[in-house]
Amino acid sequence: MKKVLISSDLPQIAAELLKKEGFELSAWHLERPMTQVELMAETKKNNALLSLITDTIDEIFLNECRHLDFISQCGAGYDNIDLKEATRLKIPVANTPDAMSQATADIAFGLMIAVSRKMFYLHKTIAKGEWGYFRPKANLGIELRNKTLGVFGMGRIGTEMAKRCVGAFNMKIIYYNRTANPLAEKMLDARFADFETLLKESDVISVHSVLSAETRGIFNKAVFNKMKPTAIFINTSRGAIHHELDLIEALENARIWGAGLDVTNPEPMQAGNPLLSMENVAVLPHVGSGTIEARNEMAKSAAENIIEFYKSGRVSNILNPESLKSGKLALD
Please, are residues 143 and 297 in contact by the beta-carbon 8 Å criterion? Predict the structure, then answer.
């Protein structure tokens, strides 16, 4: 009987599926994430790990737990995992890339609208008793219809965001990606652009890329200075992709018009962060996948990765397929 550690309090469907297939489970049920020491200690008792983005699965962890057959990440992002080291140690890693696309695209789309009409800020003025008389030139937003959306990372979530913008506001779509996305081009009349063109032409830039050495801190002072002064910056991917102090400066100096963030740098954001009091900013606490449907699907998919691996030695959502090339099968 294979033993699986579930590192967080996930929807019950994950445990139900794994138990049905005969796995022995242990799970972490405290409100806080495990420390790395706790995670290593518990993982050593198990054959597979069902992990979350809050788990630190670095070189130290992987070498301490090199016995692992498999890691299944509950989520699309995996920058908490040293994938290179896992591959070197022949530990297969999988994620759940399709489970949260709709929910996260909804958040990006909602933040864009909220920023364009100063919704978060205006809500706070009501709470402070500042809803006074009608002023025709006060608190004006900007319209999105027929504007240009620039997608930084045209994958599943970026494509869903673009669909919403085309359908609701007839926005033009340009995108920057590691490779061209012919499906998005055909379906949305999207245009592949280099990074400089994306910055120059976009009225809204929405970030949907993975966090990597190439994307870490890429949206910095120099980049914000190349955007339109009327542009909105949206990030629902990873906070480390933008330099937060540079973003604050760009907003304070009207280098860009507004920003909508579901991810911050660092996380959690401190209550005194100046972004929280700016008119043209909307910030959420990393809740892109925060729907009942998405979280259930994430848990289900993460469990199915483990089941598929132990049944066949292969996984549809594998991130490092080269880790399986040694001939080691899951059931060995």
Answer: no
Answer whether 21's CB lies under 8 Å from 309's CB: no
Does residue 326 have a pLDDT over 70?
Answer: no
**Residue among 211, 205, 98 at smallest CA distance from 160:** 98
For the CA atoms of 277, 280, 286, 291, what is the dihedral angle to 10 degrees? 120
pTM reported for the whole predicted model: 0.93
Mark whether 29 is an active-site residue: no
Tell me which of 286, 295, 297, 308 is the catalytic residue. Answer: 286
CA distance 22 to 254: 59
Question: 5 to each of 8, 17, 26, 108, 187, how far by Cα in Å?
Answer: 9, 14, 5, 32, 41
Give me 63's structure tokens: 């070498």
Looking up residue 148, the CATH number of its domain turns out to be 3.40.50.720
Asked if residue 329 has pLDDT above 90, the reply is no
Are 117 and 143 members of one domain? yes
Catalytic residue among 267, 293, 314, 322: 267
Instruction: Choose the catalytic residue: 117, 164, 238, 243.
Output: 238
* pLDDT > 70? residue 116: yes
DSSP 69: S
pLDDT in tens, 197-238: 999 999 999 999 999 999 999 999 999 999 999 999 999 999
Tell me, yes or no, whether 247 and 266 share the same domain: yes
Domain membership of residue 62 (yes or no) is yes
Q: What tokens does 85 get? A: 């080291």
- Is residue 267 part of the annotated active site? The answer reads yes
